[in-house]
Design brief:
The chain is mostly helical. The protein is 42% helix and 8% strand. The chain is built from five helices and three strands. The protein has a three-stranded antiparallel sheet. Helix 3 (63-70) packs across helix 4 (74-86) and helix 3 (63-70) crosses helix 5.
């Protein structure tokens, strides 16, 4: 975030973060609820956003949470995640759903509230 707590979504900064790419690719596995897990630690010289993602995803973290924490649009975060996935630094999976639909249990209301707050902050 920029000084004063406001997101820096200037086109120049976003262009620089993604190397000019506007999309993460047609086969990108990332949607808002995809869980991301770091498979390695950050290394010296790594782009600061990539390093931040690796630190924050030491445990499964949803794409929307990563975007909210970084203060970046989800579309930009998807590109950064695709970079890390391509180098094997993260793994991605969708939350597990039961094979028996009648066994489905609603998520904890506190988690839903946190996701809602995260989405509103985007």
């Amino acid at each position: 975030m920029s000084p004063g707590g406001h997101r820096d979504e200037s086109p120049d900064r976003l262009y620089t973060l993604t190397g000019g790419r506007a999309r993460s690719g047609p086969d990108s596995p990332f949607d808002l609820v995809t869980l991301v897990v770091a498979e390695s630690d950050p290394v010296p010289g790594m782009q600061s956003e990539h390093a931040a993602i690796l630190r924050m995803c030491r445990r499964p973290t949803a794409v929307v949470e990563v975007a909210a924490e970084l203060g970046l649009p989800v579309s930009i975060v998807r590109i950064l995640l695709a970079d890390l996935l391509g180098t094997g630094r993260i793994s991605a999976r969708h939350p597990r759903t039961p094979t028996n639909p009648s066994a489905y249990v609603l998520p904890d209301p506190d988690i839903l509230e946190q996701v809602l707050v995260g989405l509103r902050s985007l």
